[in-house]
Amino acid sequence: MCSRTLLGRTLSPVNRQPSRAPEPPALSLTERRKAATQLDIARAAAELFTEYGPDGTTAEDIARRAGVALRTFYRYFRNKQDAVGPLLAAGGDRWRALLAATEPGTAVPQALEKAIEEALCAPDEHAAEGLHQTRALLRAAVDDPALRAVWYRVNQESEERLIPVVARLAGADADPVQARLAAAAATDAIRVALETWAETDAAVEGPGSPAELAVRCLRQLMGGMGPLLADGKG
């Protein structure tokens, strides 16, 4: 039996309190410009994929739409499908930041659920547009293995970056295996929710929306892991 459980545990004042996530180092001006250029290229690629599909889009088209030289495109990306990576990863970056800002003492499942729900909601036109863009990319990925590979890679990288955030929230003495399982469950909940939503014409809010589906997936995945984690079996 595990001496402590991660899922369903609320950290009380007598437990060791998780520390706040350290602030990421400030980016230099050069790094900010590089990130901005990558995001401009990613947006251009997403627009063209939506309009013409990956097969009808070339790297030259993307560079032209983004207003950069072709050599600049290849400085940042290996191929046209790879170009949408920063756009697909942006949502994961946002929700990890929300989770990292969670108040100490919050139970991990509730913290994950709240961060996911907030990250996937569409309170304004910009957020709704981002979700619709993701839907278009996921639909295009159905017939494009290279684009699917980018989506899977983004999710894998997001899961790896999520593990220390979950572990910090759970406390220094939490079982690292449980932290990994919780990170995997949360990442898969979002991935499955977005893929499921992309197959439908459901709205960005309400029943069948990304946020509603992701919370439902998270509860089922973490509920299913409960006995496994409590028993400490792997």
TrEMBL record:
Keywords: DNA-binding, Transcription, Transcription regulation. Residues 1-26 are annotated as: Disordered. GO terms for molecular function: DNA-binding transcription factor activity; transcription cis-regulatory region binding. PANTHER family: HTH-TYPE TRANSCRIPTIONAL REGULATOR RUTR, MYCOFACTOCIN BIOSYNTHESIS TRANSCRIPTIONAL REGULATOR MFTR-RELATED. It comes from Streptomyces albiflavescens. InterPro entries: DNA-bd_HTH_TetR-type_CS (IPR023772), Homeodomain-like_sf (IPR009057), HTH-type_TetR-like_transc_reg (IPR050109), HTH_TetR (IPR001647), MftR_C (IPR041347). Residues 35-95 form the HTH tetR-type domain. It holds the Pfam family TetR_N. This is TetR family transcriptional regulator. Residues 58-77 bind DNA.
